[in-house]
Amino acid sequence: MRTVPLLPTAGGGKVRPERYHLARLGADDIADLRDALIDAVPACDTTDAELFTGPDEVEPDSVREAREAVAKEICAGCPARIECLAYALAIRPAVGVWAGQTADEIRTMATAGAREVA
Ligand code: SF4
């Protein structure tokens, strides 16, 4: 069974990732999440950033999928994964692999939570 990490909220509590949008984070909270991510020693700090962000030029789907799979493997062993997921859900990045999820998967996770409480 997969363990779902609880993420920190602005109020000092913890919530499941799909409810993270309810944390209503402000700029200071997001800065704190970024600082926590950096402090947790991200594994990608010592890796080619393009592996996570992709190249500037158009990337064939098969190449992108292979690159993202390698990035996700690195994320799986990253000590900053929970902090990374919290930050990604807060900023909803347009591109990249974050906490083992693509930007699209992060947005889906956040949107699913929003629909759940609508
Ligand atoms: S979980 Fe992945 S993207 Fe996030 S900090 Fe770690 S290696 Fe980087």
TrEMBL record:
<feature type="binding site">
    <location>
        <position position="84"/>
    </location>
    <ligand>
        <name>[4Fe-4S] cluster</name>
    </ligand>
</feature>
<keyword id="KW-0238">DNA-binding</keyword>
<dbReference type="GO" id="GO:0045892">
    <property type="term" value="P:negative regulation of DNA-templated transcription"/>
</dbReference>
<feature type="binding site">
    <location>
        <position position="78"/>
    </location>
    <ligand>
        <name>[4Fe-4S] cluster</name>
    </ligand>
</feature>
<keyword id="KW-0408">Iron</keyword>
<feature type="domain" description="4Fe-4S Wbl-type">
    <location>
        <begin position="43"/>
        <end position="108"/>
    </location>
</feature>
<comment type="similarity">
    <text>Belongs to the WhiB family.</text>
</comment>
<dbReference type="InterPro" id="IPR003482">
    <property type="entry name" value="Whib"/>
</dbReference>
<feature type="binding site">
    <location>
        <position position="44"/>
    </location>
    <ligand>
        <name>[4Fe-4S] cluster</name>
    </ligand>
</feature>
<dbReference type="GO" id="GO:0005737">
    <property type="term" value="C:cytoplasm"/>
</dbReference>
<dbReference type="GO" id="GO:0035731">
    <property type="term" value="F:dinitrosyl-iron complex binding"/>
</dbReference>
<keyword id="KW-0805">Transcription regulation</keyword>
<keyword id="KW-0479">Metal-binding</keyword>
<dbReference type="InterPro" id="IPR034768">
    <property type="entry name" value="4FE4S_WBL"/>
</dbReference>
<dbReference type="Pfam" id="PF02467">
    <property type="entry name" value="Whib"/>
</dbReference>
<dbReference type="GO" id="GO:0047134">
    <property type="term" value="F:protein-disulfide reductase [NAD(P)H] activity"/>
</dbReference>
<keyword id="KW-0411">Iron-sulfur</keyword>
<dbReference type="GO" id="GO:0045454">
    <property type="term" value="P:cell redox homeostasis"/>
</dbReference>
<dbReference type="GO" id="GO:0051539">
    <property type="term" value="F:4 iron, 4 sulfur cluster binding"/>
</dbReference>
<dbReference type="GO" id="GO:0046872">
    <property type="term" value="F:metal ion binding"/>
</dbReference>
<keyword id="KW-0804">Transcription</keyword>
<keyword id="KW-1015">Disulfide bond</keyword>
<protein>
    <recommendedName>
        <fullName>Transcriptional regulator WhiB</fullName>
    </recommendedName>
</protein>
<keyword id="KW-0004">4Fe-4S</keyword>
<keyword id="KW-0963">Cytoplasm</keyword>
<feature type="binding site">
    <location>
        <position position="75"/>
    </location>
    <ligand>
        <name>[4Fe-4S] cluster</name>
    </ligand>
</feature>
<dbReference type="GO" id="GO:0003677">
    <property type="term" value="F:DNA binding"/>
</dbReference>
<comment type="function">
    <text>Acts as a transcriptional regulator. Probably redox-responsive. The apo- but not holo-form probably binds DNA.</text>
</comment>
